[in-house]
Write a structure and sequence with these properties.
It is built from 20 helices and 15 strands. The protein has 557 residues and is an alpha/beta fold. It folds into four domains: 96 residues, 2-Layer Sandwich (Gyrase A, domain 2); 159 residues, 3-Layer(aba) Sandwich (Rossmann fold); 78 residues, no CATH class; 117 residues, Isoleucyl-tRNA Synthetase, Domain 1 (Orthogonal Bundle), CATH 1.10.730. The strands form four sheets. The chain has a five-stranded parallel beta sheet, sandwiched between helices. The protein has a four-stranded antiparallel beta sheet with strand order 1-2-4-3. The longest helix is centred in the middle third of the chain and has 25 residues.
Length: 557
């Protein structure tokens, strides 16, 4: 990474100055290299001289930060990433990347190919990202698309950063909601076969239940009507779950989402893990009987102001009881080093109680990160869309994909940080013009591919990158190299939204380069060869960014 190389170069310059006795040898805190807010302050800036001066004063040595900065600048090696240096203000060192070094990086990007942008920080640690988990009781509401796009892109980014990532969907198939679903499905199944059968009270009234019932008839005929109702519903539960999960898998595949594991909540009960862990927590004083119900005493732990019911007074366990066992299974049984759960913001009250669960289980709460995301509003003609024309009850992910396409769905839902709400403008997302950011980015990628394809017909010399000196060429190289830092930012914040903005910026800078610099010029074959390799580097960076976001990178449009 560019910033890492600059840090190493500065450290060598400091060490050289100390070795020559020009600066006293003192222990310094971690070196900080940042991008200045103002472009005319250089590509990077460091407060190394100010930090060194403070350390020297603490050691009783009088020092001038500007003099220290100049001393460090004097020892910067030639031929490295740093070109011009400016001492600013009280002693900041502003750094400009060397033109010759920038030119060399084009070859590095091309040589790395699709691996460009990958980091080595994860070291193969086993992380799990669990996202979009829901009751298997119907098609997914469009709001779930944000959860899915966010979790999937996070898994992509973490994989690129060197983590071993498992993607998981937690199927909430235990408890009363799924029982209601199976009973409702039986009623709709019977109705389609001509039998009067009311749906249960608080059952699922959506028209989609008839779709599931028809699939059941197509696969099994009327055989469940030959059984007693209770027996039929009992037999329908696993069949109906498989039916809905298969439907969810097909629906999510349209959004480019695939999972490594579909984990069943019911398995935690079948294995006895829920009872085992409730007994353990009761024995260690973390569960108490109150008003006929069992409560997890979360308030025994820091920053928690509410206890949580784990078994209701009717003897039915709650979702929280399952969550205790589920997270024990993640960390202890399956041995993940870190887990990221992607939840809607309406679950924020659950977060501190999950930290208490981790502590009660003897696990470090820092190993569990819960990413909360805001809600999504669909907007058409400036007005919020609340109802589905086809279903009359909800707008599904599939319906939104039908209208604007999967790439537009993912890109638009990833443009904001998770904690910010999203207004998804359907008219803009469907527009085939440069006002639509995903169209603009994909069209720019297709333009690069077209240039590279056309160049295959040309006979050009091997690229000599020293020809790349135009400001627009150098600006494009700088932006391409920035991808590595953008991946790091996405990992640090566990939010890939910065990558959507980077993709737009990279596309804009490429188009400025294309406007200012003629790529294929028969009269300047050496310049054309160099610019073509720069186009190839830009294509690699733009395609990689789109892949990280889970969006296609078309070669033509």
């Amino acid at each position: 990474m560019v910033r890492d190389e600059i840090q190493q170069t500065l450290q060598k310059a400091l060490a050289a100055a100390q070795q020559k006795g020009e600066l006293p040898a003192v222990e310094l805190p971690a070196l900080e290299v940042l991008r200045p807010k103002q472009a005319d302050h250089g590509d990077y800036s460091t407060n190394l001289a100010l930090v060194a001066a403070a350390a020297l004063r603490k050691a009783g040595v009088a020092s001038n930060p500007r003099s220290i900065a100049q001393c460090i600048a004097d020892h910067l090696p030639a031929g490295g990433p740093i070109g011009a240096v400016e001492i600013a203000g009280p002693g900041f060192i502003n750094l400009h990347l060397s033109v010759s070094w920038l030119q060399q990086q084009v070859e590095r990007v091309v040589a790395a190919g699709p691996a460009f942008g990958n980091l080595h920080r994860g070291g193969g640690a086993r992380w799990q990202v669990e996202y979009l988990s829901a009751n298997p009781t119907g098609p997914l509401h469009y709001g779930g698309a944000r959860n899915g796009a966010l979790g999937d892109a996070l898994a992509n980014v973490l994989t690129a950063a060197g983590y071993q990532v498992q993607r998981e969907f937690y199927v909430n198939d235990a408890g009363n909601q799924f029982n209601l679903f199976a009973a409702t499905l039986y009623a709709r199944y019977a109705q389609l076969l001509g039998r009067e059968e009311p749906i249960p009270e608080q059952g699922y009234a959506g028209e989609y239940m008839f779709d599931y019932a028809q699939k059941l008839i197509d696969q099994h005929g009327d055989r469940f009507l030959q059984l007693a109702k209770d027996e039929a519903i009992a037999q329908l539960k696993p069949i109906s779950e498989a039916l809905v999960v298969a439907s969810l898998q097909a629906e999510l595949a349209r959004l480019g989402i695939h999972y490594d594991c579909w984990f069943r909540e019911q398995s935690l009960y079948d294995e006895g893990l829920v009872d085992q862990l409730l007994d353990r927590l009761r024995s260690q004083g973390d569960i108490a009987l109150r008003d006929g119900a069992l409560w997890f005493l979360a308030t025994h732990y820091p920053k928690v102001d509410k206890d949580e019911v784990v078994v209701r007074s009717n003897g039915m366990p709650t979702y929280f009881a399952s969550d205790i066992a589920y997270h024990y299974h993640k960390f202890v049984v399956r041995g993940f080093d870190h887990v990221v759960n992607v939840w809607g913001v309406d679950h924020q009250g659950h977060v501190p109680r999950m930290a208490a669960v981790m502590a009660a289980l003897g696990l470090d709460p820092a190993r569990l990160t819960i990413v909360l995301h805001g809600l999504v509003k669909l907007i058409r003609n400036g007005q919020e869309v609340k109802l589905s024309k086809r279903r009359g009850t909800l707008v599904t992910i599939g319906e939104v994909i039908d209208e604007v396409g999967a790439d537009a769905v993912r890109f638009n839902l990833l443009t904001r940080s998770p904690d910010s709400p999203v207004e998804f403008d359907l008219d803009l997302a469907a527009a085939a013009n440069n006002e639509n950011p995903v169209f603009f980015v994909q069209y720019s990628h297709a333009r690069i591919c077209s240039i590279l394809a056309k160049a295959e017909e040309s006979q050009l010399p091997p690229p000599d990158l020293s020809w790349l000196v135009h400001p627009s060429e150098l600006a494009l190289i700088r932006k391409v190299l920035e991808l590595e830092e953008q991946v790091e930012v996405a990992v640090d914040k566990l939010s890939p939204h910065n990558l959507t903005h980077y993709a737009v910026d990279l596309a804009k800078i490429f188009n400025s380069f294309y406007r200012d610099c003629k790529v294929l010029d028969p009269e300047q074959p050496h310049l054309s060869a160099a610019r073509l390799q720069l186009c190839q580097a830009a294509q690699i960076a733009l395609a990689k960014t789109l892949r990280l976001l889970g969006i296609s990178a078309p070669a033509s449009m």
